[in-house]
Amino acid sequence: MNRPALKLFVAVVLLFLALPILLIVVVSFSSAAYLTFPPPSFGLRWYRAYVASSEWLAATGLSLSVATAVVILSTSLGTLAALGLARLPGGARAAVAALILSPLIVPGIVVAIGIYYAFSRYGLIGTPIGLVLAHTCLAVPFVVTSVAASLAGFDRRLEQAARSLGATPWGAFRQVTLPLIRSGVLVGALFAFITSFDELIVALFLSGSGAVTLPRQMWDDLRFAIDPTIAAVSTLTIGLTALLLGGAHLLRNRSARA
Amino acid sequence: MSDAAVITDIPLVRTFPVRPFRHTGAVLLVGPLVLFMVVFYALPVLAMLARSVTEPSLSLANFTRLAHDSVFLHVFGTTLRTAVAVTVGTLLLGYPVALAMSRMRPNAAKLVLVIVLLPFWTSILVRSYAWMVLLGRHGLINEALLAAGVLDTPLRLLNTPIAVHVAMIHIMLPYMILPLSSVLRQIDAALPRAAASLGATQWGVFRQVVLPLSMPGVVAGTLLVFVLSLGFYITPALVGGPRDLMLSQLIAQQVDLLNWSYAACLSATLLAATLLLLALCQMVPGVRGAFRLGVR
């Protein structure tokens, strides 16, 4: 394959990747009453429609609070587990790691209906708590892998040195280990937030009518009416995700340099 | 074990004598998460899957019945066809991109990586919506073709298998490009140069040196995309047609009908196919390393 042909082909594929997403962003600033391209003129009409809708705002609020609770739960459970995982003997470590990482592999629909099956008996359908519990299981693999990666470069003798100098286990963790793995924990927390905030399949089954998340609200709207408000909401979520990932990237670079 | 290894082992044994409860700390750290995941995730999924063999009575009858179940066979066929089409599509589109990335200057490669990762981290729902906007009856592609005079009446693009393939290729491309580029980047640049200096043509260098060395990445990307494609739900539900259900859609439909034993049976089948393919891929040498970068 010669160079110019390869370059052209790659450019076309990259356009294929980027254009649909850019298109949504452009459409969201359209002033037209319906989906049309190119937009006759630009404005914030659909963002105003979003802000004026109590349904959309309620769904956004719920998604933000569920994701925040998921971050707290998954980051604390996941960080502890990553610390323990490194100290487990080989066989036990492989088994625990398989359990923790399995949500990345098990098809979403299987996880969703399994959890739905059990949670409907506990009365957790249509409650934010049900969503938080389920999303935490899905978010934990990202926290554990991220913290484990930062622990890989961590010298455990530092912790032992702190202990031998009289630090309590908690003191050694808080003053020695945590500062060194902090960026791994924060990156894991950001990924946990995005995982919960974007999650749809589990939410389709668990939301019921009482706990409608933002993706669930978008799904309902897409199935019954395509309204450019969704483009505005999509653009906002793309922006939020990009912001969080940019943050994660900066954290990683900073820890790489340190 | 060599003598040197034995000697270095001795001080370790002395500093950390074997104690009966030496893993207590580790268990206490891992325990809360394991308990949480067993109660809220593993047991629920296993209890649901168990219904495939316990109803109506304890037997494998539900599974043997699948072999003659025309609805299942149709859906399974659609699912496999879709996964194959998406895998082939992402490989054909992704390989040249990964190859080009491995030859770029670091800054240019970084820019391409950002473009590849942009859709990777945009939610599947938003990306499926973008394809609904593009492919709809009054979507951009139809409007553009009508305006250009290529068409008289709009094409039916949305709610067809083509729409599912295109949207899923768009969504799965990063999963193909990432393992490919991580393997291609590791190829020693001296090898293609040596082949060229020995008289190989550009195509010969690619076919006889670069392509064989990149096979672990090809296998990893192919399996990853194929396995993830088998379980797709949101995209086919939004852009696919009602007659071309994928396995995940059939499962959701059966749950809505409260047909739990059938849904559990289908879920077990989907899960078994997924685990089998991943186990296969662990056996291919060199694939594990390529995988680590690819998993989202």
Provide the gyration radius of chain B in Å: 25 Å
Count the DSSP helices of chain A: 11
**Average pLDDT taken over every residue of chain B:** 84
What is the CATH class designation of the largest domain in chain A? Mainly Alpha
Query: What is the molecular shape of chain B?
Result: globular
CATH superfamily of chain B: MetI-like
Query: Largest beta sheet of chain B, briefly?
Result: none
Counting copies of identical and different chains, the oligomeric state is: heterodimer
Shape of chain A: globular
| Terminal-residue CA separation of chain A | 42 Å
Plain-language structure description:
- The complex is a heterodimer of chains A (258) and B (296).
- Chain A is mainly α and 258 residues long.
- Chain A is 79% helix and 0% strand.
- Chain A contains eleven helices and no strands.
- The longest helix of chain A is centred in the N-terminal third of the chain and has 32 residues.
- By secondary structure, chain B is mostly helical.
- Chain B has one domain: MetI-like (MetI-like fold, Orthogonal Bundle).
- Chain B is built from 15 helices and no strands.
- Chains A and B meet through α1, α3, α4, α5 and α6 of A and α2, α4, α5, α6 and α8 of B.
Summarize the structure.
With 258 residues, chain A is an all-alpha fold.
Keywords:
heterodimer; A: 258 residues; mainly alpha; MetI-like fold; 2 domains; 11 helices; globular; B: 296 residues; disordered N terminus
Which secondary structure elements does this structure contain, and how are they paired or packed?
The complex is a heterodimer of chains A (258) and B (296).
Chain A lengths: L2 H26 L16 H8 L1 H32 L4 H12 L6 H15 L5 H25 L3 H9 L4 H30 L2 H6 L7 H11 L4 H29 L1
Helix pairs in contact in A: 1-11, 2-11, 3-6, 3-8, 3-10, 6-8, 7-8, 8-11
Chain B lengths: L2 H13 L8 H31 L6 H6 L3 H34 L2 H15 L3 H12 L4 H8 L13 H25 L4 H8 L4 H12 L1 H16 L3 H6 L7 H10 L3 H24 L3 H8 L2
Helix pairs in contact in B: 2-14, 4-5, 4-8, 4-11, 5-8, 6-8, 8-11, 8-15, 9-10, 11-14, 11-15, 13-14
